[in-house]
Amino acid sequence: MAHEHKLEIFRGLLKFKSNTQKIWGVLVFLTIVTAIEVGLGITKPVVLTGNYFLGMKLLNWIFIILTLVKAYYIAWDFMHLRDEKNALRRAIVWTPIFLVAYLIFILLFEADYIYNVFKDGYVKWNF
Amino acid sequence: MDSTVTTASEENVWSGGNRPLNASYGKLMMWFFLVSDALTFSGFLASYGFSRFKFIETWPIADEVFTHVPFFHGNFPMYYVAFMTFILIMSSVTMVLAVDAGHRMKKNSVIWYMFLTIIGGAIFVGSQAWEWATFIKGDFGALETKGGRILQFVKADTGERTALADFAKVIPDSRLEHERKNGVWYYDEGYMTSYNVNEVIEGFKANSNILVRTETINAEGEKVVLDRQQSLTKLRDATQVVEGANLIHNEYGSRLFADFFFFITGFHGFHVFSGVVINIIIFFNVILGTYERRGHYEMVEKVGLYWHFVDLVWVFVFTFFYLV
């Protein structure tokens, strides 16, 4: 069992003295990220809701990226993936990422196509 | 502590006993399960995305749906969900502290941290039950059209939502209720809405300060409000009153929104519930000293993985259901 923990986060920018300290550090970080998300969700700055990147509002991109950041720290520090062997970590992380990326790509494209079919008036649904 | 240290020369690959991934069988199987469970949740969330992109112009705005906080009246979008998220992250922290204490063989700390984790999980499940109850009960009420679309009502002067009870006219009529004694075949008539369509429409006609709000989202990201004339035309399509939400009708907008809400948060809530039950079992095992005798607390680590996974899934559900 891996008793020794890697105590650095942010690529070594922040180094903790003990595992317990690292856990609290990560909690503080996750709380800050959640607070930013909620703050943005409530205020909804016009700069972020009015501008789009790849068909999605910048605000939503920020939400998704921050979610992935949170997921990274939960998996790496709470689930101890940081301390696992590379082979195990890669098997756990890349398998779902590959499958989910494919699923999202194919479903969202299909959904957008159906949206256009509805919109172009071939199907009456809003009555 | 592990004592399966093998040097390269003596290592026998085919007779078992070596651990190329440096993780025990149980832990690997837990990861195996978690990866497959992650794919299940991804399937749900991706299909949510599918339905949402399909109806991108009419999808309900989550901020307008989840606006309640227990014991407070008013409009508080997202505050309560944010609180729930924090509770779950917090219980994840106590769980990882329990795992850490287990590594250092501190039985009393493990008991204490496991206890806090269970409490956090219980608060979360309770909050989710409350959230469901509020969602099912409904807020303002709405009308449903022939095509299954939802018409909501706002005040013309302030633009605020208004409840059916605020303007619907009570029209006394004699309604003959079918009773068991009157028929060979008898069905309970089931749930009745507080007002019927006619009462809502008459009330609308009598009150010039009310307008219809449709499901359509305009360029500013707000729901389109019709003017008085369009509203009256639109109301002719209405077939029934909807109060609250279930799997078939949903006063907040698209029915699929309610379906996915029940399905995804329900499946997640079920995971949290089972997590709490498993944590309780492990909690008692720790108290009884099972892992002390076994010499290691790996079992705590394994349920910890499951518990963190539940937290991880919630992070995604929170984003895709409430934020985006």
Helix and strand arrangement:
The complex is a heterodimer of chains A (127) and B (324).
Chain A: E1 8-9, E2 14-15, H1 19-43, H2 46-50, E3 52-53, E4 56-57, H3 58-78, H4 86-119
Antiparallel strand pairs in A: 1-2, 3-4
Helix pairs in contact in A: 1-3
Chain B: H1 25-54, H2 62-65, H3 79-103, H4 107-137, E1 142-145, E2 150-155, H5 164-167, H6 197-206, E3 210-217, E4 223-225, H7 228-235, E5 238-242, H8 255-288, H9 290-294, H10 298-323
Helix pairs in contact in B: 1-8, 1-10, 3-4, 3-10, 4-8, 8-10
How does this structure look, described?
The complex is a heterodimer of chains A (127) and B (324). With 127 residues, chain A is mostly helical. Chain A contains 4 helices and 4 strands; from the N terminus they run ββααββαα. Chain A has a two-stranded antiparallel ribbon. The longest helix of chain A is centred in the last third of the chain and has 34 residues, at 86-119. The model of chain A has no long low-confidence stretch (mean pLDDT 88). Chain B is an alpha+beta fold. Chain B has 10 helices and 5 strands. Chain B has a 5-stranded antiparallel β-sheet with strand order 4-3-2-1-5, with helices on one face. The longest helix of chain B is centred in the C-terminal third of the chain and has 34 residues, at 255-288. Chains A and B meet through helix 1, helix 3 and helix 4 of A and helix 1, helix 3 and helix 10 of B.
Question: Which tags fit this structure?
Answer:
heterodimer; A: about 130 residues; mainly alpha; two-stranded antiparallel ribbon; B: about 325 residues; alpha+beta; Four Helix Bundle (Hemerythrin (Met), subunit A); 2 domains; 10 helices
